[in-house]
Amino acid sequence: TVSTCYKKIKFYTHENIGFGEISLPPEEMHTTAYWLALTNDISEQLEDRESESTFFNLAQGLLALSNVLINVVPLYVMCDPQDVRAVSEVRSPFTSKPTIYIYDNYPGGVGFSEKMFELRRPLLQAAQELILGCGCEKGCPSCVGPIDEVGIKGKESALLILREALS
């Protein structure tokens, strides 16, 4: 990631007291990752649903699912929640497909990615159970993440992606 500007904010009042441009080098870390790339068949089915449906959005669904997986993964690979991070892309430059990357938050990786790969199906099933078990309507921090972040279609879209991925 690259930061391009800064903002000065007063404590307690959050008043904006200034801003400016900055020039910093990109932040980069070499680590290992598990990725979930949707197959072309699933991608096409989901894109068709996106065009004809008002309750599905691929980008929101991928972000919501990545948030859920970040909450589920630590329980299965026995790590701290801060040990793993996630990135979702609608069209990844590496897979050319909708992809979620869950990576070890340590330079060089420490083996969590390999465990995630071995446990990929139970992780997806646990993610589905977590979403279905939540009583909210459109998403909340307990399941897919804040609705302001994942959008109003996030929860339903994540469930659709999971149904397709698990079938």
Describe the structure.
With 167 residues, the protein is α+β, with helices and mostly antiparallel strands. The chain has one domain (33-166). It has helices at 40-52, 58-77, 112-118, 120-133, 147-150, 154-166; strands spanning 5-9, 16-21, 33-37, 84-89, 99-104. A three-stranded antiparallel sheet has the order 3-5-4. The two termini are 35 Å apart.
Order of helices and strands: EEEHHEEHHHH
How far is it from the N-terminal to the C-terminal residue, by CA? 35 Å
Mean pLDDT: 89
Give the beta-strand count: 5
Main sheet summary: 3 strands, antiparallel
Query: What structural category characterises the helix and strand content?
Result: alpha+beta
Question: What is the number of helical segments per DSSP (H or I, 4+ residues)?
Answer: 6
Strand order of the largest sheet: 3-5-4
Q: What's the number of domains?
A: 1
- Ranges where pLDDT stays below 50 over 5 or more residues in a row are none
Shape field: globular
Summarize the topology.
Blueprint: E1 5-9, E2 16-21, E3 33-37, H1 40-52, H2 58-77, E4 84-89, E5 99-104, H3 112-118, H4 120-133, H5 147-150, H6 154-166
Antiparallel strand pairs: 1-2, 3-5, 4-5
Helix pairs in contact: 2-4, 2-6, 4-6
Domain MrfA-like Zn-binding: 65-144
GO molecular function: 3'-5' DNA helicase activity
Protein name: MrfA-like Zn-binding domain-containing protein
